[in-house]
Amino acid sequence: MNEQQRVDQAQVKQVGKKFVKQEDNINRIKNTSSEEMIAKYFQTSYEPQAPDIKKARKRRKEDIQFHYDFAIPEDIEKIGKGKKFLIRTYGCQMNEHDTEVMAGILIEMGYEFTADTNEADIILLNTCAIRENAENKVFGEIGHLKPLKLEKPDLIIGVCGCMSQEESVVDRILKKHQHIDLIFGTHNIHRLPQLLKEALFGKEMIVEVWSKEGDIIENLPKARKGKIKAWVNIMYGCDKFCTYCIVPMTRGKERSRKPEDIIQEVRHLAAQGYQEVTLLGQNVNAYGKDFEDISYGLGDLMDDINKIDIPRVRFTTSHPRDFDDYLIEVLAKGGNLLDHIHLPVQSGSSEVLKKMNRKYTREEYLNLVKKIRKAIPNVTLTTDIIVGFPNETEEQFEETMTLMEEVGFEAAYTYIYSPREGTPAARKVDDVPEEVKKQRLHRLNALVNKQSAESMKKYKDKVVKVLVEGESKKNPDVLAGYTEKNKLVNFRGPKSSIGKIVEVEITEAKTWSLDGIIVENMVEVK
Ligand code: 5AD
Ligand code: SF4
Fold first, then answer.
1. Of 184, 221, 476, 480, which is most buried with the most CB atoms under 10 A?
2. In whole angstroms, how far apart are CA 412 and each of 128, 344, 378, 383, 452?
């Protein structure tokens, strides 16, 4: 299927009993006033409407199609010559990587990167919807950009990423932020060239958010940030439907890339000299579950990638429910598979986990940890935790504190629960005051800091392998990099070690980082 056929096919979607063509919507938008536009737009063309969990749960039967024919249309191939773009990224690694793809597309169109808003001809905000404060930040930035747009009417400002998949967000931008030129969803990234053309030559705001989420487009260009570490998507979407989480609605259903495409990408990165890859997915352990013709999961993929000559391989994010014995067996082989596992637990209370629809109990999580530790004795575990889930009791919170200690997590990303419109948990009446939630977060963070500091102390006077990424942000005379267990190390050494894995002797352990000195000048180790 070529680009035009795909576009035609994907642009047609069922709304009620009618099919609506995206082009027609754009024309309609262009020919109507903003108020009319909002009303008509949401009646006719926008799916999903408000994130709809029932609709989302029914989506499994759709086919997944793979495309290898992305190309920038000839008439807009050089449209960006002499112009500059800036993409501001919010949120997770998936967004970081999507930004690399969008940057790749823009560079192919002739645009150059700039970090200066005043210099940019295109500004894209690649947004995150996971918590309310992430959204507030974006709306703040949208407001800040208004004077610039008034000063430079030709500037194109676009909003993309997870927030653009939410009706309430699109609605708010349409009503209150008319200086935005373009809104597009997470399934429409490959349409950036055509959308830009519409935005450049049209007068109205262009909105394209598809609910069609089954496609995987393989040959999108990527402008990777750096030449040392690379993100590699292995799957998209999530079907876990944790009750607090917006991701299954903003990122669509689970769909896995073909093993051969992933392996080829990793091989290519290795050949280019990359030292580390992180395999990405919202729920990487579900990798391969959607394959109908082969039985091949994350364990098989890791086993195949273990054979590729690239020094470090990580993966994120795991779901405990799908962490199977075969994956543990493969990870225990070591080699380039690092012994650091990020395993979000979310809560230490089985009752809360049930309400969260996490599909495991505290005991099952602890058993999994036991199994992993038995197979990989030196493993480092880190996690994500939400405090203040609706009606979380003091006892339930205490169970999270004891689990934190019992597992011995060396780091944790901790969050106060944030209600997300359209998710089941957001409908719950919540009797926990905000102040109590803040105190719980504070207590949890004190414990996280203590455990992190303790884990760091073990490294004092020891030699660790560090992948050197560059100069330290605080001091250009100091280099910075990460150990196999993802501990940040600041050390003195020659600049020529940047991009290499070197041995560093740790002289001081801090709460979140280590200080050290390179062992011998330029010992490169693999
Ligand atoms: N409120 C707070 N934290 C959340 N996360 C996901 N959804 C929410 C929410 N509604 C957290 C989870 C997840 C991490 C990426 O973000 O801990 O693992
Ligand atoms: Fe969200 Fe992760 Fe749960 Fe999926 S597994 S719904 S991404 S928290």
1. 184
2. 20, 9, 18, 5, 9
What gap in Å lies between CA 490 and CA 514, rounded to an integer?
6
In DSSP terms, 516 is beta-bridged to: 491, 506
Mutate to test the pocket of ligand 1, among 415, 418, 437 (most ligand atoms within 8 A of CB): 415
Q: Which CATH superfamily is domain 223-458 in?
A: tm_1862 like domain (3.80.30.20)
Query: Pick from 392, 304, 401, 382: which is nearest to 356 by CA?
Result: 392
Query: What are the 10-residue block averages of pLDDT along the chain, 526 residues in total?
Result: 35 24 34 38 34 61 81 91 97 96 97 96 97 96 96 96 94 95 93 94 86 82 96 95 94 94 98 98 95 95 98 97 97 97 98 98 98 98 98 98 98 97 95 97 98 97 97 91 97 95 97 94 54
Contact assessment for residue 417 and residue 390, using Cβ atoms and an 8 Å cutoff: yes
Q: Tokens for 317?
A: 């994010």
> Considering Cα of 226, then 229, then 231, then 234, what sign does the dihedral take?
positive
Helices (H) and strands (E) in the chain, counts: 17, 23
**Probe target for ligand 2 pocket from 238, 244, 249, 345, with the most ligand atoms within 8 Å of CB:** 238
CB 336 within 8 A of CB 308: yes
Ligand 1 lined by 131 (C-beta under 6 Å) = yes
User: What is the topology classification, in CATH, of domain 53-208?
Assistant: Rossmann fold (3.40.50)
Q: Which residue has the tokens 């439907």?
A: 241
128 is in an annotated binding site: yes
CA pair distance 214, 64, nearest whole angstrom:
5
- Domain positions in the chain are 53-208, 223-458, 462-518
Look up tokens 């495309």; give the residue. 67
User: Cα of 106 to ligand 2 centre, how many Å?
Assistant: 30
Q: So what's the architecture of 462-518 in CATH?
A: Beta Barrel (2.40)
Contact at 8 Å (CB) between 138 and 129? Answer: no
- Total residues found in the chain within this entry: 526
Q: Is 130 in the pocket of ligand 1 (CB under 6 A)?
A: yes
Cβ(489)–Cβ(481) below 8 Å: yes
